[in-house]
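Let us practice reading a record.
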Amino acid sequence: MTTKTITKICLFVALGLASVVFNACKEDAPKPSATEQPDPTDTTGTTKPIDPSDPAKPEERESVVINGVTWATRNVASSGTFAATPESYGIYYSYQAQNVCPSGYRLPTKSELESLINSGSTWTNRNGTKGRIFGNGSNTIFLPAAGNRGPNDRDGVHSPPPCTFGDCLGSYGSSTREDIEGAPYDVKNAYYLSFDSDRMVVSYDYIPYYRSVRCVAGGAIQEVVVTNVSLNKTETSLPIGDSETLIATVLPANATNKTVTWTSSDDWIATVDANGKITAIEKGTTTITAEIGDKTAVCEVVVYDPKTHDKGVVINGVTWATRNVDEYGTFVAAPENAGELHSGYSAMYDAVCPYGWQVPTKVEMNKLIDAANVSNEWVTLNGVNGRKFTDKTTSVSLFLPAAGYQGSNINLDGPLCEQGAVGNYWSSSTSFSGSNFANSLFFTSGNTTVYTDNLVLGRFVRCVAK
C-alpha cells in the first residue's frame, strides 16, 4: 500500500466522524422510547384545538359528530379548558358545575349520552390508557376509564388510579337531573354515563358525586326528564275492525322529550300507530304499551267478534245483551235490528244465544218490567219503534225493538204481524208443567207485560248473561 493510498483512507474516516458529530449536535432532544406514553392523570388544560391537519384521525380534531351530536374529543381539564390529549383524564366535577366546558360547548344531556351508547362502542387500551371508543368509521371519540370521586372529595383534582385490581370504570356527568319529591337539593339525582369493559349504561346517582366531563357543542340545554307516563284507559274492548285512540299523559308537562313510543304485544290481534290509535284485527287479547325512556304505561285490549260478543248492560241486577239474536249463536249488528224469529221450542231447548248467554227466565223478565226499580218508555231509535228500559239507580238503559211477531202458523218465514207496533220476546220458562206454552215479554206503545204463548209460534229473543 502506498503512502498516497493510506492518506486517502485517513481523510475519509476523519470526515465521517465529523459528520456524525455535526448531525448529533443538530438534534434538539432525544426521541422518546416506544414504552413512553402520555400521562393520563395530567390535568394541564388548553383552550386551543388540537391540530386538525389530518381529519381522518378523530383524535386530531377538536370535535366529532356522532348521531347528530357534536362531541369534543378530550375531557375537560380546569374549568373552560380541554385536557391535553384524548387519553388524559382531566378534572372531576359534580353536577352543580354546569359551566365548566370551554366556550361554545356544554354538558351533554341524558338523551345525548344514550345516543352515544347507541352509536356503538368498543373497549380498548389506547396509548396505555383503558377506555371505550364510541361511534363508527372516522367519526369516533375515545373516553378514558377515569373512575370517579365520592361526595366528600371536593378538591377538584383527579382521583387515585381508577383501574385498581383490573377494575376500570368510566363515569361521565350530564346536565340532566332526576328530582326526588320532598328531598333537599343536595341529595337529588343526576344522570351520568357509566361503563367498563363489559357494559354501558346511563343511570342516575347522588348529585354530589364527582365525574369526568366530556362536552358537546352548542348552547346550554337544561333537559327536563320524564317522571311518569299514564294512559286514559288501562283496559278496553273493541269489535273486529273498530278503532280507538288512547291518550297518553306525560309528566312533567315541560319535559324535554315527550315523544311516546307505542307498541302492541300482538299485532295479529290489534295494531297501534305512532299516535296511539288502536285498530282491532282479530279476536283475542293484546297489551298496548306507551313508553318514554324507562317510563311505561299499558292498556289491555280485548278484541271480539261482534257477532258472538256483546258488552251487555245491567238492569235491576240482570245483565242483558244490547242486541237481539240473529241466526243461531250470533247477535244482530245494532240494537234496533230485529234479528231472526225463533219458535218457543228453540228458545227453550236449543242454543240460540251466543256462548256465555242464555234465554231469560220469567223471573228475569219480571225484573226488567219492575216499575219500582226500572222505568220504561216508548221511543224511536234510528227510525225504529220500541221500548227503552232504564235502571232507576244507575240510569243505564236497554232498547228492545218492536219487531212484531209471527202469527198462528208455524212458518217462521211467514209475514210478521204488527211490526213497529208490538214487541214479543221468548223466555225459557214454561207456563204450565209439561205444557206447550211458555212465558214471553209482550209490549206495545201503551202496555208492557209477561204473558203466555204457544211454543210453536215465532217470537224474537233477547239474551241475558249466564
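A brief commentary: The radius of gyration is 41 Å.
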